[in-house]
Amino acid sequence: MGSAEQGKIKVAIVGGGISGLALGAGLTKKPHIDFHIYESVPEYKDVGAGLALHLNAIKAMLLIGDEVREAYSKKALNMGDEALEMATQVILAHGPNEDMKGLMELLPPGCVTFGKRAASVGQVGDVAKVRFKDGEEIEADCVIGADGVHSVTRAYILGPDHPAVGAKNHDGYQNYRRTLPMDEARAYGMDPKWTTYVPILCGPRGYINSMPLDKGRLLSVGIVVPGLRFEADKIGGAPPLDPTKYDDYSDEAKKMIKMVKDDPADSWSYADHDNAPFYWRGRVCMIGDAAHTMYPFAGNGAAQALEDCAVVNALFDKVTSKDRIEKAFEAFDTARRPRSQRVVEISREFGWLYAYSYGDLHTDPAKMKAFMREAGGFTNNVDLNKQNEAAMEAFEKLL
Ligand SMILES: Cc1cc2nc3c(=O)[nH]c(=O)nc-3n(C[C@H](O)[C@H](O)[C@H](O)COP(=O)(O)OP(=O)(O)OC[C@H]3O[C@@H](n4cnc5c(N)ncnc54)[C@H](O)[C@@H]3O)c2cc1C
To answer: Where in the numbering of this chain does the FAD-binding domain appear (predicted)?
Structure first.
């Protein structure tokens, strides 16, 4: 970390994904904060996936700043349709590299160091420390871990042997996925309506979904198969997709399965986290997937990450002296842990529903709708001003 200007609070952010960069975009507007982001990859690469950002994500971005929302909108395909339940609000243009670039443009030059992988995080006295794989060690007033599912920050906060540290995949989901030009997808005879939003076709041996990317020029299509108990998040090792298992699925579903089978470019296991009992320890805190990785079935991981950033960003307005850091982290934990962990649970429930294994819910469309309305309402129709106010109230009580 560069030498901080006198009197500023030094914040080291580990991880330059959505959480790290969105938080940076907020902190950059605070004259009393000196932050730096350490990102392990040498550069952002296109992973060919897409992110659907729901209404709560949009509200969270606006709380951090209009410019954050604008950075996303520039790269996004707007799919808002109030008539559709769980309607996707915005699809990012094409994989995380595009939204990363948009957010990077909001940060002053030089505040992100790439190719810097944290090996461990810790604290000695009042000094928070990050040790990197290359042997360098930096000191800061606090560390915010935004380092994703396999977070080293999480291992420090919970203790390396805590059962909730590692990634989980209790339901054994394996995702087989392909991205192809939209014209090619249409040539499979797909109904054009499926190529303009994010359909989810449920079934007991796997659910199929597709998502338009790159402003509708590409289609990402995949099948998520439950019960394949591979090591969480491990790439490779899964058996090839067997399309004969889906002979009783609908014609539309079979077309999409064929698309994937013809060029199964990608296959990976899903991962989530069991609940962490706390999101902070002393001068070290975790946000985003580091704190609460969730299955993507409710499409809300990035949204929850952005909600974290909105709260931490608001609290750090008031972190004008070092003795306030831990109070801000505790207030963040109070305001964000219960809600974000409920969304982890909801994401598991969506997975069971899509795989027809959530009791008999799938047999009754009215009950399914009611579940989706309630769960979608919880994730998306939230008053984030109130969430920020609750965090500030908790913080002020601790002062
Ligand atoms: C298939 C799939 C589909 C999804 N779809 C949606 C969706 O539609 N809507 C939605 O809201 N969410 C979705 N999500 C979830 C969303 O992608 C994540 O919740 C979000 O990316 C979390 O952001 P993050 O910055 O917290 O973590 P990450 O995106 O994981 O970023 C962590 C960053 O930290 C870096 N890093 C890791 N370890 C270290 C280290 N030791 N030192 C330094 N840097 C490190 C990584 O390189 C990375 O850049 C989906 C997830 C998946 C897997």
So the answer is: 278-345
